[in-house]
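Ligand-bound model needed. nicotinamide-adenine-dinucleotide.
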Amino acid sequence: MRKSIKASVKALSDAEKAMRASQVWASVEKEPRFVSAKYVLLFWSLPDEVDTHAFVEKWHTEKHILLPVVIGDTLEIRSYKGMESMRKGAFDILEPIGEPFLDYPLIDLAIVPGVGFDASGNRLGRGKGYYDRLLPQLQAYKIGVCFPEQYLSAVPTEPWDSKMDKVIFGTIMDNEQVIKLGRLEQILPEELGNRSLDSVFVLTDENTHRLCLGKLSGLGIPASNVICIKAGDDNKDVEALASVWSHLSQHGATRKSLMINLGGGMVTDLGGFAASTFKRGMDYINVPTTLLGTIDAAVGGKTGINFGGLKNEVGVINPSRSVLIDVDFLRTLDKENFLSGFAEMIKHGLISSREVWNHILQFDLDQIDYNALPSLVEESIQVKRDIVRVDPTEKGIRKALNFGHTVGHAFESYAIQQNETKLHGYAVAWGMLAELYLSYKLVGFPKEDFLQAVSLIKEHYGSLYITCKEYDLLYELMTHDKKNEGDGRILFTLLGGIGDIRINTNVEKKDIFEALDFYRDTLGI
Ligand SMILES: NC(=O)c1ccc[n+]([C@@H]2O[C@H](COP(=O)([O-])OP(=O)(O)OC[C@H]3O[C@@H](n4cnc5c(N)ncnc54)[C@H](O)[C@@H]3O)[C@@H](O)[C@H]2O)c1
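Prediction:
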């Protein structure tokens, strides 16, 4: 079995099931292979709630829908001729019939539902008998359709064995990102091979141009399609954005072009926004090269730029089609940037579960073990992914990901105003100190966990110098936080314990000031 990302099994409401099912079939219908296929073999042992009949009915006037059926010990393929025949289990027999159908030359696409693996690697789902007998021998393009929440505790994010060409997931989220971990030299060509594109552009910053672009050399992307912008969050601005639009425009990019964002969160945020808005939207892929980008910025679809001295003031939520992760990039990252990313991993540990939190506490930041990193990274991405999956547009639970960010963003904006650049993750780490204090004081975050988290941050993250004279300004900056609802209140995401998320918690000014006192006392400012 290849690389997989674990998914927890969740109960879905009927409405969610119906939505998921129609999204799966909508994705199947959009597949170029499906569009061009004339003979589609459908393994119809689908989960009950999926209205396969309606879809088959819709397709059968323009396609030959073929169904494998078991007659005694023999598997045969029957041709579907409309709903009535399906209901009665009576199909017209297609010639040739019987076992020789495996060589049947006309089948150009097979859709195989409900198969995957559990956490121990055992294959699950209905239809696996057919799968075992038929697929290895069938000469057709094969799409596997997964319904992770219902059937699978471990879901392959890519074709789960060599017999499968592509996997489509049932999901609540529209347009869900495919996330792959592996060697970029392998996973990127695979990804590009699945698309019909008229040109490919790459966005880098100066550092990723020098350190990371080499891994794309085998793709033959012309140098004129490589766009390089200045590094650093202070360049995540409207000028850099306009320069990317100009480049795309001058070099003939179209809506069928693809942009690869190769870099940290600055590049994926700006590049994602540029791609989402160029010609009203072209596809893009994120290839994160920093730890922060890998476990956070590249995942989940938020894009944008800083504007008017405010962080991420302008942007859109539009997920990249895929995120391709090669942790080898992280080896050239300096310690500060590593720690910046690790701060978001600390946050993911705090908002998710005791298990993830313990893994964070066990990781030795003084001696980074790059071999231990992939599993930690995978776990951290999964925390974000699970949240984004149920609330892609931040109507509710996605606000959990803002833990530490209400105060953190205020620190970051304040630093920008002082012309003092501070890394995003550091600002979040300091913000978490203040918000852990508020969680402890206001909603019962346990003392022992509180002290443990505070000491982890204190040990590694230094400080941003502020005095009590800055409190009003910081408060004013917090009023701009996007989680607020415009009624003057400042709404925090707090924690009642590890994984116990309390979104939309209104916090009074005096408590915020007390939390800033705690921040200064803890860091000896
Ligand atoms: N969209 C989101 O959901 C989201 C979430 C968190 C943060 N962000 C944004 O992400 C940005 C911060 O991300 P970041 O920390 O990755 O910043 P970054 O992209 O500025 O990268 C940090 C530095 O590392 C360099 N770098 C990149 N890859 C490298 C490599 N492999 N080896 C050596 N150096 C490398 C960069 O050139 C840069 O100098 C901020 O703009 C923040 O607002 C976005």
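The first helix runs from residue 14 to 30.
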